[in-house]
Design brief:
heterodimer, A: mainly beta, 7-stranded mixed sheet, about 0% helix, about 45% strand, B: mainly beta, 6-stranded mixed sheet, 4-stranded antiparallel sheet, about 55% strand
Chain lengths: ~120, ~110
Amino acid sequence: EAGVAQSPRYKIIEKRQSVAFWCNPISGHATLYWYQQILGQGPKLLIQFQNNGVVDDSQLPKDRFSAERLKGVDSTLKIQPAKLEDSAVYLCASSLGVRQGAYEQYFGPGTRLTVT
Amino acid sequence: AQTVTQSQPEMSVQEAETVTLSCTYDTSESDYYLFWYKQPPSRQMILVIRQEAYKQQNATENRFSVNFQKAAKSFSLKISDSQLGDAAMYFCAYRAISGYALNFGKGTSLLVTP
């Protein structure tokens, strides 16, 4: 079974530029999550999708971050314009659902973003 | 909001020995899920073990076991017969029954020496 795919693996941009990350979840997984992991910290949820609808985006900085999940499969996370403090690893995860027995989250390899 | 605290930034263990990683959490909920994740240098988070709070029995997965103390809100991970491949960051995480997101601690870096 293929895992969660993410690209690119690394990205270096200058502040005020824009960047986009892509995630392809495990086939059949209805729930998709984007986490931000700043160096030295645990991951923090940015946004969660259930199929193609947003369930929780309370911690997403909406003035610069946006995300979409077209057709309930792939997802993209965009930052525009980027700030220095956005330097982090962006992790995508997916799960079958959110109920007991289906909530285990599988993570992708992440994208390391460096903003200079 | 639930908080997860890992008080050990770094731990070291010799190969074949046993090590325990600590985790405490704060919640007003009576039922929830707890997890330990491993993150090697490749950055991919791997689920090590999970515990449902309503289960009194401590979870075990091969060389990994937990000591779940619900009243003390403590959830420690014991790794027995440590192997070089166990070297990684270990994160403790909490998930509410009615919630979706995993709330992670800051992690413990585990070094395994030959």
